[in-house]
Write a structure and sequence with these properties.
Distance between the termini of chain A: 77 Å
Radius of gyration of chain A: 30 Å
Largest sheet of chain B: none
Oligomer: heterodimer
Number of helices of chain B: 9
Helix content of chain B: over 70%
CATH superfamily of the largest domain in chain B: RNA polymerase sigma factor, region 2, helix turn helix motif
Distance between the termini of chain B: 30 Å
Shape of chain A: extended
CATH class of the largest domain in chain B: Mainly Alpha
Amino acid sequence: MIHSRSDCRPEQLQKALDSRLPADDEAELLRHLDTCDTCRRQLESLAADADDWADVREFLSGREPWEDRPDGADRTHETQNQDSINTAADRPQRLDFLAPTDDPAMLGRLGPYEVQGVIGWGGMAVVLRAYDRSLNRNVAVKVLSPQLATSGPARQRFAREAQAAAAVVHEHVVPIHAVSEAGGLPYLVMTYVPGRSLQQRIDQAGPLTVAEILRIGMQTAAGLAAAHAQGLVHRDVKPANILLENGVERAMIADFGLARAADDASLTRSGIIAGTPHYMAPEQAEGQPADHRADLFSLGGVMYAMGTGHPPFRAETALAVLRRICQQPPRPIRQINPEIPDWLAAVVEKLLAKDPSDRFQSAAEVAELLGRYLAHFQHPTAVPAPRKVAVRRGAAGRTKKPLWHHRPQLAWLASALAAAVGVSALLYFGPWFSYDEPSAGSPPVAPAPPRASDGQGLSPAAVFELTRGSFDRQQWETDVDQVRRRIAELEATFHQVPEPRSGQVWAEGVSQLQQQLDELRRQLDDHSL
Amino acid sequence: MDQMPETRRSLLLRIRDPGDDEAWTEFLEIYQPLIYRFARRKGFQHADAEELTQEALIAVASAIERWDPDPRRGTFRGWLFRIARNMMINFLTRARPGEKATGGTDFHRLLQQQPAADGQSTVEFVREYRREVFCWAAREIHGEFQDVTWQAFWQTAVAGHPIAETARQLGMSVGAVYAARSRIMARLRRKAKQVEGQ
């Protein structure tokens, strides 16, 4: 059937593109398009102009863009570690800095070392597997990336890293043998640890047993304690950086790639956040100065991963991971793996406290405690269990300085909000009152003393005391509802303030509170107070 | 998603809004391969191109401090893509293999010192940018369509197969193939417009 021009209904074409055509009309139009060249052309030019059609063909041909990312999209700037072994072959290898060697089995020479192969590539350095002839042993050589060797700051950072790491001598830290330079390239020489990383172990075998979690956790904590004693913070503790030596599976912390002297203010203040976000501490994620307690948070994440097979905070994007790290409690470890004893869950939870002052205060303390738990776990009758640690549970978000502090004309609002903050903080901190008291012989793990929240007004403990008499579920509900009403009032009032930006700031503050309250309600249900 | 580029604190503070987070993710998906590939095309070695990419992304991230969240001045996404595009044209079209980007601050100084970019490279960059945006948009919208609809588009508009033949292979009418390819094309254009920042 041949259509005449009078059959054309150009007004329907746009609707068809937007999928807004009723089924009958659509069927009619498709039939019309079977033959009408005019309408086909018009439809196509409505969809896109000729350049677009040409570009789509050129740009998309040869690519299956929905299946895999284009080359380069997933290139990362990882710190080097042994997990990179598999990817090493895929990367273009620029080893032209190596000197020629007589040994055909070797890639080349670097200083006195015969280079056997590449262990991994990172953003800053390449790690080579090499043989030290003079001492007849295998070593891992970390060479500053040739591209960076010309950059002053990168050289300094590398040198600082090497010196700092070399100062740590401990059975659970990969030893640094030498720091040197060849052909203008700085490098450091480490013990080559045959084995696999904890990450590989978890990937291959899933969650570990309680005894293994305790042992590896204890050894890692001991290694960290040695570094911390030198004023060093690792800043990138993660399963991929913990090597398990073949045979005995001794845990050794590798890659102090980001380690910096804790007093090196110039670098820590730059505010650049580097590293894998999954195990990062909240203070690192927020770009604040991080001390040794950041490593303890990461250790908590590592222990969580050993118990569950995955890191405590997961999300679609790196930024979403960071947001969860800063704002949300991890899913309780025992919900995922009920075999984890509650005392171990409490240790992990305390390590993962958002506020550094709520964590254990030293790695040595953690190592000691885990050691005692391990002894008890292996010989329950001979060794008494340490007391379960006290955890200040449920501080889901670090209390922020209220945004409205900056706006004096809103000071009156702040006082009203202080009440809200006080009550919500109280609800948060409530549960820890019921935890075990530490015994005299155990490490100092007493709950931190009640303190004023960063917001104005009453400390959680003070509010607790005031309302203790009416500590029942109904009262909490009432309080929560009251706070909620107050927020609604504040919000309404605030919208009358003319300045447009203040609206946004305020909305942010209020929505944070709202979230807290929702969380409170959930907790209330969970704990059946 | 194990790694992230170095990210300035200001960015993290800024990107609290999930909508902004999404814009930033889009930005990375488009710009990371774009800068890398453009640099390679200009003769940079792999490692240098990676280095340059990271420097460039950090520079954009640091510019986020200057973003004014006043809604009347447009969305974060629009702003981000506008500023990134300008910065990239300024930088990439001037950068030469062998030049080292040695740090965020130096990069910034470099940006400010650059006079207008040379015309040829700008055209090239805009073209590469468009390529990346189209590929990204195709990835994004692919899941919205049934496979047969997508095939009708792909076989005819991208692979260049005749429409009648494709219709027969897919068991569709010729009219349906025309409608399908145009519908996807329109959707692709709309998606690409989101970030084209023109």
